[in-house]
Each structure stands twice: as C-alpha cells, then as structure tokens.
Amino acid sequence: MNTEKILNAAANKNLAKEFGNLVFLGNVTEEPYTTDEIVAAYSENDIESVKRLAREHKQDFEEFGVFRFEIRKPNKGTQGGRPTKTYKFNEQQATLLMTYLGNTPKVRAFKKALVRAFFAMRDEKLEQIKNRARSIPERRTLTDAIKNWPYCNKWTYKAITDLILKASSTGMNAQQLKRKRSVSNAMDGLTLKEQQTYNAIQNVVIGLLDLKQSYQQIKTLLNAMTAGSQPAAC
Asked: Among 62, 93, 158, 226, which one has the highest count of C-beta atoms within 10 angstroms of its own C-beta?
C-alpha cells in the first residue's frame, strides 16, 4: 500500500475537497481500511497526534477487530530516515477514531466522506472474494496439467506456482508473500488485481505445460510477458 500519491493530492485544496481514495482494499483476508496518514491529511490533524491516539487507545480499537499496521522502510536512494509505522483502521475502528478527533466542520465533512467510501468499497471486496473462490477449481486444473507434464518431479508444483506468483506483479514467491502479508495461504495474500493477473497467467502456463514446454521455456516467456507490461525505460 502506497499513500504518497493520495497525500500529495490532499495537499491540493481542490483535490482534498473531493475526498478521493480514502479507503483501500488489501488482500482477501483483510477488511477494507483507511490509514492514519489519510485521516491526518483529510481531517487537518497532525499525523503524530493521530498516531498517538492509535497507540493510546490500542485496546479500544482491538475490540473491533485486529488492529493492523504496516512498517515502511525509507525509499531507496534517500539519505538516512527510519522505518515508519502506518496504522490501518477498518470501518468500525475508523468510526471510533473519528470520535477522538473533535467535531470541527472539516472533521464532520471527512466523517461523511469516509462513511460513503467504506460503503462503496463493500462491492469491490465482495468481487475480490468471489474471484478468489473462482480460482480454487482452476488450481485443480493446474495440478492436473503438472501431473501430466513430462518434466514433473516432487518440486514442480511449488516451482510453477512461485513462477506464476512472481509474474503476477507481486515479485514474491509463496513463502515471501505469506510472510509479507501475514497469511497462511499465499493465494489469500493477493489483492483483487493480483488475483486477476494470477488467473490469467495461470491459464497461459497450463497451456504451456500441455505443450510440454520446459521449465526454462515457461520462465522465459513469463519474464517476457512481465517485461512487456512494464513502461519502457527512458
């Protein structure tokens, strides 16, 4: 999750009035959420004050679900800097947080916008869950294709799955994905967009397995597909 673009927009008064992109959709196991950075920017509160509220009322927030956070390291190439902790608030936690922020006109307007944003995100969350459910029978097809592949060995399923995951815009294998996104099943750690990409690439891989392409041939093709989806270097 990267909120830099949103925070830049919040600095622009015209864009801030629109209250765009207040709520995010993470992986399939996460509820839609907003962050301390978004709350601070759009309610015109100091970010450190919002983080302090998050720490001081941690137990209160935990009554409404797992109180999540994300540690972000400084961007590569920057001098110094320490990792920052970004708090994530689900809908009920965000509602509770609003009660701690006072009742200024700006905060009231933000509260209403946040309620609308969470409501709008419910449909996208439902689609993410449905898409994950649709991918389960497709994985059985991948298993069948691997079983019939002439180069199959005991490591093949893991190697092919990791190959698809890395090409699905995550750049991570199954173990890295589970650790990074705190899930027990790597597929549950994919966002909606990543799920869709995974399913599309998986279908390509099934075809390549049926054509008896070698692992290296499949890897080369997927790397070419991934490179082709990236913007050209200047």
From this structure: 93
Question: Would you give the DSSP letter of residue 188?
Answer: G
**Residues 45-89: tens digit of each pLDDT:** 999 999 999 999 999 999 998 899 988 877 666 666 688 899 999
Cross-strand partners of 68 = 88
Quote the CA–CA distance of 209 and 217 in Å, as a whole number: 10
* 41 neighbors 10 (Cβ within 8 angstroms): yes
Alpha helices, DSSP H, located in the chain: 4-11, 13-18, 36-43, 47-56, 58-62, 91-99, 105-147, 156-165, 174-181, 192-210, 215-228
Handedness of CA 44, 76, 78, 72 (dihedral sign): positive
Helix axes 36-43, 105-147, angle to 10 degrees: 150
pLDDT of 152 higher than 80: yes
67: helix, coil or strand? coil
Tokens at residue 60, please?
Answer: 């209160």
Report residue 84 as tokens.
Answer: 């920052």
Q: Mind listing the pLDDT tens digit for each residue in 188-205?
A: 889 888 988 998 899 889
